[in-house]
Amino acid sequence: MTTGAERPDAADLLVVGAGVAGLTAAIAAADAGLTVTVLFKPSVGGAPSTSTAYAQGGIAVVDVNDPEDSVERHVADTVAAGGPLVDVEAARSILADGPTAVDRLISWGAQFDRRPDGTLKRTREGGHCLSRIIHAGGDATGAEVQRALTAAAKTRTTLTARPGQAYALLANGDRIVGVRTPDGDVFGRTVLLATGGAGHLFASTTNPLGATGDGIALAAAVGADVRELEYVQFHPTMLYTPGARGRRPLISEAVRGEGAHLQDANGDAVMAGVHPMGDLAPRDVVARAVTDAMERTGAPCVYLDATMIPDVAQRFPTVTEAVRGAGLDPQTDLIPVVPGAHYLCGGVVTDLHGATTAPGLYAAGEVAHTGLHGANRLASNSLLEALVMGLRVASAAQVAPALPDGAVRPISPSTARAERPELQDAMTRFCGVRRTVDGLDELGALLADPGFVVDEPAATPRDHEDGVLATVARLMAAQALARQETTTEALEATR
Length: 495
Description:
Keywords: FAD, Flavoprotein, Oxidoreductase, Pyridine nucleotide biosynthesis. By secondary structure, the protein is α/β, with parallel strands linked by helices.
């Protein structure tokens, strides 16, 4: 137990995670005069491990000077992609604040691609009715956002960032007041989870190695509402390399926005007759069509033909580098692609200020569930949501009450864990793009088997992550079985 007298250095805002949501909240809070502590998982080399840095897609934001676009059109595209689970009022609120949030990001130093007249260059991606996506470096938007935010954070004198993995949340009564790390307890008047997603539940993902669902497991452990984890977005065009697993390169949807198209191993168009928007249909539709094509041909992948884009190497340098790393040239060769775990549409339920159902605990970014994404995130809505909600959490932190006195107790996720490759293979088989009721039943039984998921103390950070993955897998499998709309049977019944 830790007492109030032992936490005089508590920050006004404690952020767990250093991607776009976490750093936006941290910088805005520091600018408002608050003290901020940011804890992050380090990647190889020591920099924060974030999905933001890998985001090739851009930021979907309405051009307020474009008479053809509007917040309502953006909302309509969001609902068309995410279905009836989209909270329309939440979507309208978040998307309406997008232009202001982007202006704030630019004021912090982010540099986006511009036209010769100096206005922001906008492109189109899947599910959007027109071009409203801003990019940086062609297909390196996330890297530029991460660079700008990291640089801005370093200039804020009341902001401290350091490596630290959250093993438990600290509670005083029912209020969350900090986190426990291997190096000790860290306190904050407001605690923000900005830990990203859980892509490493699956054998292959576009997510960085640190995306193991930590925030989901921590929030669930303290009783916060966690909802709709069954809605995992599988990006339809992850680079295919035989036998590879773990993080794999993404082939940005913007490549299709510039004219590239999908074809199966026989050379037939994957999206022919599938959806009116063709190759730019919502991601869930394209991912299922790609899976159908692979099953139909017996091939391990489909192919993206980008050879008609004359300046593909200049327009998409990140994609080109990844494809050349696989021994191919996107200007002359077909790019082998498969669906890969990409984005968690559900998460820790928050209100429109980022507050969870656990007092003192906030969530923003991919770990959170605001209602914006519904069953399927619209392309490039994620960075926008993280910016807007990060700013809102910073505002909420300004009026947070003082920390209470008294002892605190750590509340941690279960230590039960499975061997990671076996867990990932099971999740990919039973809870991936293709799901059946029988398969989810089998997955549930496997995750309840003490021979598969073993309960023993975590001795290393990797052990802790494996326990978190098993916890989130159990939650996801149970929610998928309870809501069977994601099963193959249900989807085929709606065709």
